[in-house]
Amino acid sequence: MGLLGAVTVLAGCSSGDTSTLDAMAKCGKIHFASPPHVVADKSGALFGSGQTLWAVVDIPLDQLDAFRQQSGLGQFNAGVPLDIPGYFKDAGAVADVLKTDDGNVSVEDAHAIPARRVAVHTTGPAERRVFISVLC
Question: What is the model's pTM?
Answer without folding.
Answer: 0.84
